[in-house]
Specification:
This protein is α+β, with helices and mostly antiparallel strands. The chain is built from three helices and six strands. The relative contact order is 0.19.
Length: 158
């Protein structure tokens, strides 16, 4: 008999894989993953989210740019699970993003991100994603992430 392995990650564990903090963490749970292959994550959209407050007050719509951020955060987690955790002196930056939005996302929606690893190099990660709500596609993404040392970014103005 084969024993099932739990490949989910809860919110507290997700925070250990991301440098982001409130209000910029969008992923609520990793539902399943296989390093070097795929990651499936969940984001629950609430009317109390900071991004919703001004977008738009008369008819709340979750911003597409924030969907891209959730996509990138899912990718950052898969990248590290597939290679190694970031060192204290490293950052993961977005190299490129292509996106297509097919439906608005509103409070009450649960967005599922299905990511696939397209190419994995030591310093870069290329991946694609389909985002759905109740099985209907709301967006599709392709992107790349680059792992870099903080001191390679030049003079720190922050």
């Amino acid at each position: 008999m084969t024993e099932a392995t739990d490949t989910s990650l809860g919110f507290t564990e997700i925070k250990s894989w991301l440098r982001h903090r409130h209000p910029m963490i969008y992923i609520d749970r990793v539902l399943d993953h296989r390093p070097g292959e795929y990651l499936r994550s969940l984001m629950s959209v609430s009317g109390t989210m900071d991004a919703i407050a001004g977008h738009f007050p008369e008819r709340a719509v979750f911003p597409g740019s924030h969907l891209m951020q959730a996509f990138a955060q899912s990718g950052i987690i898969l990248y590290q699970l597939s290679t190694s955790p970031l060192a204290d002196d490293e950052l993961t930056l977005i190299g490129s993003v292509q996106s297509r939005f097919t439906r608005v996302v509103v409070p009450g929606d649960q967005v599922i991100f299905d990511l696939r690893c397209d190419r994995l190099y030591q310093a870069s990660f290329h991946f694609s994603c389909r985002a759905t709500v109740e099985g209907a596609r709301v967006a599709a993404f392709r992107g790349s992430l680059v792992r870099t040392k903080v001191d390679e970014l030049g003079r720190q103005l922050w």
